[in-house]
Amino acid sequence: MDRPILTGRVPGRPVSWKRAQSAGKRRYTDPAMDAHANKIAARVLVAARQARVRQFPECIHLTVWALWPRPGTIPVGHMLHGTDPSKRHPRPPVPDSDNVGKLVMDAIGRIRPKLWGDDAQVTRLEVLKRWGADDEEACTIIEVREDE
After folding, report:
1. What is the reported pLDDT for 147?
2. Which of 10, 29, 65, 79 places its Cα 20 to 30 Å from the Cα of 36?
3. Percent of the chain scored above 90 by pLDDT?
């Protein structure tokens, strides 16, 4: 299937999954990560309702676009120096792509009623970290397709 089942756009800088921290016997998660996961869950739920999707298919192709704003000034030697500002370009390695994708999958798992039984239904995962095009806001774009 070529068309996405649903597409959701989450405004704000992309956030990656982080391991829970400990302080003595207490364990806690990063509040910024939890807040972003809740935003992702809310946006995906709205997109699912708009697309009239009650449950995802058994095999899912999940694409996550993590877009950061293009720096205002680009110094010589920077990876963006001399690139076309109207296009999206790869972003350096931090944060890890797998952790960006994991946060999105965990956030979708928080949605009630459940859209999927488990993130094991994701048979293909694409995470694209990019600098946004000129004047493009930071965001996370999530596309869900049936994987055939």
Report:
1. 92
2. 79
3. 57
Residue with more model confidence, 31 or 53 = 53
3-state secondary structure of 81: coil
Give the whole-angstrom CA distance, residue 3 versus residue 135: 27
Q: Looking at the domain covering 6-146, what would its CATH class be?
A: alpha beta
What is the reported pLDDT for 22? 67
- Give Cβ neighbours of residue 143 (< 8 Å, ≥ 6 apart): 4, 6, 7, 62, 63, 64, 65
Among candidate residues 69, 126, 76, the one with its CA nearest the CA of residue 97: 126
Question: Is the distance from CB of 98 to CB of 18 less than 8 angstroms?
Answer: no
Q: Extract the tokens encoding 108.
A: 């979708």
Under DSSP, is residue 109 helix (H, G, I), strand (E, B) or coil?
helix
With residue 99 as reference, give the H or E element that holds it. Answer: helix 97-109
Predicted model pTM? 0.85
In the chain, domain spans: 6-146
CA dihedral sign of residues 104, 89, 69, 47: negative
Q: Please provide residue 123's backbone torsions phi and psi, each rounded to the nearest 5 degrees.
A: -95, -15
Alpha carbon distance 144, 6 (integer Å)? 5
Residue 49 in 3-state DSSP? Answer: helix
Banded pLDDT at 28 (limits 50, 70, 90) = low
